Structure formats: structure tokens, C-alpha cells
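Q: C-alpha cells for this one, please.
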Amino acid sequence: MTPAWALFLIDLLSVSAGWPSTLWIAGADWRHDWFPLLAFPLTDLVCFYALGLYRRDSIADISDALERVPVIVVIAVAGASLVAAAFGWPFSLSLSIAGVVCFTVSAVLARLIFKALRRHSVFRTRLLIIGAGKRAWDLVWILRTQGRFWQYDLTFVHEDSFGAIDERLAADSSNRIIVASSNLLKIASRVRADEIVVAPDDRRGMALESLITCRAAGYPVSEYASFLEKEVCRIDIKRLDLAWLLYSEGFRTGRLTAAFKRLFDIAGSLAILIPVSPFLLLAMAAVWLGDRGPVFYRQERVTRRGRNFRILKLRTMRVNAESGGAVWAAAKDSRITPVGEFLRRSRLDEVPQLLNVLWGDMSLVGPRPERPEFIEDLAKMLPLYHERHAVKAGLTGWAQVNYPYGASLDDARSKLSYDLYYVKNYSLFFDLRIVMQTLRVVLWPGSGVR
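A: Here is the predicted structure, written as C-alpha cells:
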């Protein structure tokens, strides 16, 4: 079980234990109305997920997560109250206060329990890695910085035919490297491997029969790219195997799925645009009063199948900011106006793109649309860059909720790895997850990218 799932279950048990008694203390007669018994804790857990309390960084830094808990709980209780009101259940101040107290205490208690479990190395997984070269080193580095587990017991099995042993792996005394061993099943049994990962630099001479024997004995066997895709939810561009990408599962879209996605886009856009419209009008007035320039900014972007369209945004830069040609936006761009700085932080400048979604140029979720000038250059340097255009460009995306702001080639490569993962694994449920996690990026801008 991954740490994120373990923490979720601890939260679930903690809330389930505390909420009924809290209802009783608040004087709510839930025996005749089950709705408050379910709506409040369910909304609480959904908000915990949407606002990032089960992400790797929040699990790693419990103190940072605890600072966010009260804010998230208030949002959850307010949301649950709105849902309850929609179903005709009267608002109760005492119940709302009790909910804030109960869920805050439950969340803090759950994280203290989780921290104690982590100190005792409960969340540890044992991997048997075939190969100890550069590919294996890349695997280890990614797991230690981005993996779902916090502690990995690593054993490497290496043959001379796989190539040279990476010096960084050999220098780490915590790594066990077994050279030229023929009995793979015996090794897997001795180290009690949870999974075998095939990651040699050169596969020639690799004993496939031994791997089949291990798999038949019940040991999961994964290829390097598939294992990383599962562990870090992106596709490794650095050592991309096109044959693996060609034959692996994914890239499935059908007419019915496309129809449901379009309905989701229309309903979601209207659900956001209508309540946000008053704030949008105020933002439009602020842009105009700032320098009496145009309110909207239209720019050529690329969407599905390489089709160009004009994206609509509130103007955040000074007039004629690109008179010298197209330039990548930077985190601290001198061309941004004071009003534009606020609009970017609050994401209000992106709201007009909901019209692009309604017009069918974009989707609520998908790879962020890039400019044609930049795409031409990036496609020359990054393999499969055009494949991100297999789906419509999105208002938010998997890269946006996982990768911080960046405007370099390395940043583009990293974001492409998330975009390709989205294109490969697209589903409506995945879209819903991304929309939920976008709330975290809006409330805590430092945790994501525009």
C-alpha cells in the first residue's frame, strides 16, 4: 500500500470515528436524516484530495500540510453546507462549527499517526532491479525524488553483457549489487522482492527464461518505462523506447468518450463562468483603467491535430509587449503590468478561455496550448512533441497540476512527459481528478504552474 492510500484510509477511519459523536454533541438528529451523516465527511475527504493533502510533498512535509488543514476544512464544511442546502437541508451554524472542529482534529490526529508509522519504516518497498548502469541510476534518482514510496530497499543484478556499472550506484553503500548471478528466482526470494524491474542499458544476453520463472512464481515483473509510468505518473522522455510506447496500453479514444468529454466541457465552463462573471467584469474594468489599453489579448495558439486558433485572455502585459517578436514568458517578467500581476496570481486572466472551451477550440482539461513559433522549435529538439496535439488543448492539464513554472527547454521536456502521460491515459475520471487538483494550484500558486 502506498503512503498516500494509507493516509487516506487513516483519514477515513478518523473521520468515521469522530463524526457521529460530533453530530450528537451538535444536537443534530441524524437518525431521521442520513444526509448530514454522509455529506460533510465525504466533502471533507474530497477536499483533502483536491487541495493536495495526499500529494508527495504534503505527505513529506507534515508541518506544511498541518498549516493548510484548517483552511481546507473550512472550505470543505462550506461546500458541504451548500450541497446540503441544495438538497433542502437547513443550514446549521452549530453543525458547521462542529464540523470544522471535528475534521480539523481528525486530520491532525491522522497525520500524527501517519508520521509515527513512517518513523517505523512501515512504508518501505523492496525492488530487485535488473541492470546497474545509467538507466538503473536514472530509475533510482527518479524514485528517490518523485516515487510514491519513501523508502526503497534496492538490490541490483548485473551481467557484463548489460554494460558498465554506474559509478554513482557503486559508490552508494546502501545499494546491493550482485554480479553475474544465474539464479534470479533464488535472489528474489532471498531479498523478498516486492517487484522486479528490468532496466539494463543493453538487453542483449538477458536471460528471459529466468524472468518468466520469477513471474510464474508470483513476482511482478515490470519493464523500466512501464514501472516509471506507474510510479511517477509521467512518461520518461530521456530514455524513451518508441517500441514500448507503440505496443503498450493506452491512446484509446472513442466517439462516446469524446461526446461525454464535450458535455463535460460545456457544463463545466458554464458552471464556472456564470458565478465568476461579476469578478470578470471588475477585472476587465481594472485592466482598462490601468493604462486605457485593450482589455482582451488574443494570440495564435495550437490545439488538436495542429489546428491554429486564437486564444482569449485578459491582457496582463503592457501594450506592444512583443513588438520585437515572440518571447517565452518568464516567472518575473518586466512586461507584466501591476494589474496583470494580480490577475495572473488569481488566475482571473485565464477565465475568458472558457469561451474558447464553449466554442470548441479548447477543452477544460488537456495540454496547455503553445504558440506556433515555439512549437516549431520544440518539435525539433523534443521527440513526440506533436503527439500532445492528439487531444484538444486545455484550460488546465496534468502538467499544470504537477510541475512548477518554467520556461526553459528542460521545463518543456518535463511538461511534455506529463502531457504524453495524459494523452496516453486519458479518461473522464482522469479529467475530473485534474479539475479537482487545479483548486490547489489556484489557492496555493507555488504548488503548480500556469
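A few notes: The chain has three domains: 3-119, 124-232, 255-447. The mean pLDDT is 86.
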